[in-house]
Write a structure and sequence with these properties.
The chain has 13 helices and 16 strands. It is α/β, with parallel strands linked by helices. The chain starts with a strand and ends with a strand.
């Protein structure tokens, strides 16, 4: 089968190599899946660089989120078992972590429902207890993680303020449903949020960025507000001033979605049922900005690394191949 592999750490476009490899053999309790779609997540970038908390042995295939097909023809979504990631024609997976793909979503959209939307659901509902009528601030609102939080916030009845970088992403955030969109490249985020909220601030902040975004969040969070720390896409991990949290009376909440798979898997299943219901009635619909063939995966992962994409980029092995010379190195 064809698969992308990383033999040494570095930038995705430089270290991902496409070649013919042996089809993975399921271990005890595992199943083989044909990949219908694999979406690109920022952890794929970090794994290529050797900077992620999970470091699969070299060589490995990136791709942590897929929509796959079982041997009996069922469509499922789940996380492949590394080092056999999703940027390949076949993967192996733990059946306990697989969920039925919603019929209302195509393969790329279904694959996108897992990490970003489960993270958003747990962050906004389980951790922050977001309620109808509250105001939600989402950093990187046009990205894969942020776009899911925007839709989930609107679904619960919150007013959503989205922060993005660039005019193109402003229009995307508006189409997603943001009530207010702030272009951090053209506006002062703190002033704009205070103006939009009449000086009150926001009840919940959803932050997958860290760095300056977190600092801005502490300046606009309202009394009894909650800041949900989801990740550090900026590369800068902030050091929160707990005296500031005390004086302003707000909460800082960490979220590691993956822990729920081991600590409370029944809640993960419940979350999927809730997301499926929302997707079925059209309250949420994953934004898939690009669909590329397997040969285009390396270039696409690099675009995600460079921060120039919106929503999710999906790799579909069934698409007719592009020129390998134009889309990455070939073994």
């Amino acid at each position: 089968m064809q698969a992308w592999q990383v033999h040494q750490n570095g930038e995705p476009s430089e270290v991902m190599v496409l070649g013919e490899v042996e089809r993975p053999v399921p271990g005890e309790g595992q199943v083989l899946l044909k990949v219908r779609a694999a979406t690109i997540n920022f952890p794929d970038v970090l794994m290529c660089r050797g900077e992620y908390q999970v470091r699969p042995p070299l060589p490995f295939t990136p791709g942590v989120e897929i929509c796959g097909e079982t041997e009996d023809g069922r469509r499922v979504i789940g996380n492949p078992v590394l080092p056999f990631g999703g940027f390949a024609e076949y993967v192996v997976a733990d059946p306990r972590g697989l969920f039925a793909a919603p019929e209302s979503l195509d393969d790329a959209e279904a694959a996108s429902l897992l990490i970003g939307y489960q993270t958003g659901w747990f962050g906004l509902h389980r951790r922050a207890a977001l309620e109808a009528g509250e105001t939600l601030l989402v950093h990187a609102a046009a990205g894969g993680v942020g776009s899911a939080a925007v839709q989930l916030g609107k679904a619960v009845g919150a007013t959503v303020i989205g922060v993005v970088g660039g005019a193109e992403k402003v229009s995307v955030a508006r189409e997603l449903g943001c009530d207010v969109v702030i272009d951090r490249r053209a506006e002062d985020v703190v002033s704009a949020v205070k103006e939009a909220t009449g000086g009150r601030g926001v009840d919940v902040v959803y932050d997958p960025v860290g760095g300056d975004a977190y600092t801005q969040s502490t300046k606009v969070v309202a009394f009894e507000g909650r800041i949900v720390v989801v990740g550090f896409a900026s590369g800068a991990i902030p050091s929160p001033g707990l005296n500031h949290a005390l004086v302003k009376n707000y909460s800082i909440l960490g979220l590691h979605w993956g822990l729920y798979n081991t600590k409370n898997p029944k809640l993960v299943q419940h979350c999927h049922e809730q997301l499926t219901e929302l997707a079925t009635r059209g309250a949420i619909k994953p934004l898939v900005s690009e669909r590329v063939p397997l040969s285009g995966a390396s270039a696409a992962v690099q675009r995600v690394a460079d921060g120039v994409t919106t929503g999710r980029v999906a790799v579909l092995p069934s698409l007719s191949s592009l020129s390998s010379l134009e889309n990455g190195a070939v073994a």
